[in-house]
């Protein structure tokens, strides 16, 4: 049996957990002001007179307001000069004001009114002619704004990706600290989840434990997601429907994460319950080598796609692939992470975004052996002035996946 796999119970492990003893501080008002200033600078490069940010991760980034997008319009309008304005339903004003982390004007609308006209009025008051719109806004929001702007403002809508990605891709020290806490918490949950494994335990039981463990540590709302796969199910990157029971010799793949202050963790560990076969051990070691090769290729200025290429080169030399062919790596090597669990940029061929300090990525060049098993080791790193730094130490070996 691998070190740390089995031998305990869910009750024992949960009893040992409590609120995180070293909480990272929340994002400060001063930092949000710097984000708005940065957005205005990027708006100027885009030639935009105003920025419209829809409810969701982008709104939280700029305002601190955690508010899910729905059919009711909640947006921030940021003019090139002057205070930002929040447009929202009248009956939600109290809740929105309680969560707002910046100084902003408020314009509210009643249920029978057209909120898009209210946004257009704000734009007209600020003389905005070219307006940058949140790329994550749903189509009905885009259309509602387009009609209102066409009717009331002599201008045009353009996509605001240059602004939103330009602000969010490079994390500040405060953001890195929140992500570090989330990553540390999830790795601790992984260790304890491995300890409760026993023959016959179900994937549902393990998922329930992981959610309870994240809650016990103080994560925002427990697990944000949790994939638990045993045996052949591990050959499918995101699993298969139905319950599985653990048996001796099964590959175990657990991929889970949480949020702290809105910032995500996302860690995968794969190991064997019982004695590993030769092919399981060989593929696990190759996966670890590919993960390390991706990490070692990181340097400021290097295009994102080069990191994916570095991982694939390791696999192809061993006879896997090429490209997305199986057995081999069926997806990109990594994704950006922050307030969204998957966000730009991406470690994949075709993404030529140059790496820069503060950018954060997953490193997970999964190997799939169809019909048998899959091995995915996923940790995250942030780009530094000289290379990369892990948030969490990678698995040391198949026999010691947690060190």
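^ structure tokens above, recovered residues below v
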């Amino acid at each position: 049996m691998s070190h740390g796999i089995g031998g305990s119970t869910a009750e024992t492990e949960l009893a040992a957990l409590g609120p995180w003893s070293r909480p990272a501080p929340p994002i400060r008002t001063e930092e949000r002001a710097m984000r708005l200033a940065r957005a205005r600078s990027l708006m100027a490069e885009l030639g935009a007179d105003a920025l419209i940010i829809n409810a969701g991760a982008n709104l939280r980034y700029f305002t601190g307001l955690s508010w899910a997008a729905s059919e009711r319009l909640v947006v921030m309008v940021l003019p090139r000069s002057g205070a930002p304005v929040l447009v929202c339903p009248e009956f939600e004003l109290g809740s929105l004001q309680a969560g707002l982390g910046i100084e902003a004007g408020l314009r509210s609308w009643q249920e029978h009114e057209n909120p898009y006209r209210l946004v257009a009025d704000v734009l007209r008051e600020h003389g905005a002619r070219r307006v940058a719109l949140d790329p994550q806004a749903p189509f009905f929001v885009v259309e509602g704004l387009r009609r209102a702007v066409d009717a009331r403002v002599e201008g045009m809508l353009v996509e605001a990706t240059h602004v939103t990605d330009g602000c969010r891709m490079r994390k500040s020290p405060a953001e890195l600290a929140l992500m570090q806490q989330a990553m540390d918490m999830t790795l601790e949950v992984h260790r304890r989840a491995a300890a409760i494994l026993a023959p016959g335990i179900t994937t549902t039981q393990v998922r329930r434990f992981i959610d309870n463990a994240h809650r016990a540590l103080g994560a925002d709302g427990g697990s944000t997601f949790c994939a638990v796969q045993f045996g052949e199910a591990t050959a499918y990157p995101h699993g298969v429907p139905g319950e599985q029971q653990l048996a001796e010799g099964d590959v175990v793949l657990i991929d889970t994460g949480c949020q702290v202050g809105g910032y995500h963790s996302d860690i995968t560990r794969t190991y064997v319950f019982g004695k590993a076969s030769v092919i399981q051990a060989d593929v696990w070691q190759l996966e670890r080598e590919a993960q390390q090769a991706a990490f070692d290729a990181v340097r400021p200025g290097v295009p994102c796609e080069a990191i994916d290429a570095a991982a694939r080169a390791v696999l192809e030399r061993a006879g896997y692939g090429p490209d997305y062919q199986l057995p081999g790596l069926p997806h990109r090597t990594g994704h950006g992470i922050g307030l969204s669990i998957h966000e730009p940029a991406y470690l994949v061929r075709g993404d030529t975004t140059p790496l820069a300090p503060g950018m954060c990525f997953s490193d997970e060049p999964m190997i799939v052996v169809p019909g048998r098993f899959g091995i995915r080791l996923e940790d995250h790193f942030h780009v530094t002035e000289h290379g990369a730094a892990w948030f969490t130490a990678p698995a040391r070996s198949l026999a010691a996946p947690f060190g």
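The mean pLDDT is 96.
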